[in-house]
User: What shape does this take?
Amino acid sequence: MERKENLNNFIVGDLPTLFYIPDFITDSEQAQLLNNIYQAPVSKWKSLKNRRLQNLGGVVHEKGLLTQDLPPWLSKITERIREESGLFPSAINHVLINEYLPNQGIMPHQDGPAYYPVVAILSLGSPVVMDFTPHSRLDSCRRTSTDDNGAEKHQPFSVLLMPRSLLIFKDDAYSGKLNVIGCFRLIVYGICLFTCSIIMTTDYLHGIEDNVVHQLVKVVNENEALSRSASRDAEVIRSEDTKVVNRTEGRISLTCRLVLKVHKNLFRF
Ligand SMILES: O=C(O)CCC(=O)C(=O)O
Ligand SMILES: [Fe+2]
Assistant: This one.
């Protein structure tokens, strides 16, 4: 991708705030990143019940980020994401590196309010399907709302995340600081939600099933994901009416975000 104006070419599905960029990095860039990630001592990994993670850029605190510089091998890629997406108002300063074994995933969730409302997820290793499910506050909407063709809106959908791809989702409705424009956008957003006519990505929870086999039934970017060179990396099994992807190895994801409130040292909190 060359410039941010092109970002709209990468919209997948029905939401105008969800972008999937195949082949964002090359095979050798992927290998270098994996090399750097696995050079970290075991103590850098934090083990959770269903995955392990490294936290880079500092500690996200309720009052902001107690910042620590990203290592140069990582800021090289985050600067590129910022430059090419044009969606971050300042440098990305926080990266979560998640490692999933083939049977591991992440519960449906929404990212916390500490972050600027744009997230870029770089995928390495095994392909996975990320599921987006409407937040429960949209349920009443979902039952009643139909688009012009009579089809139901606000349905769950999924995105196939191939290795070396970049997924970006953002929410236009909130701004980091609640200035006049921010307030105006919030009011408009409230009205829109009320009428159920505009739905943003943040009205959805995102998650990854903890299964070795992922169904492609609800995937909105099958062509974009599988027509590229990355498709050689996916073991896609087609039976009569279902398609699945087999997670044959581990997956690493880099969740790149910006925390606007930054503290250089603990005593200034
Ligand atoms: O691993 C992923 O692709 C998603 C990670 C995620 O949603 C998060 O770190 O908040
Ligand atoms: Fe998340």
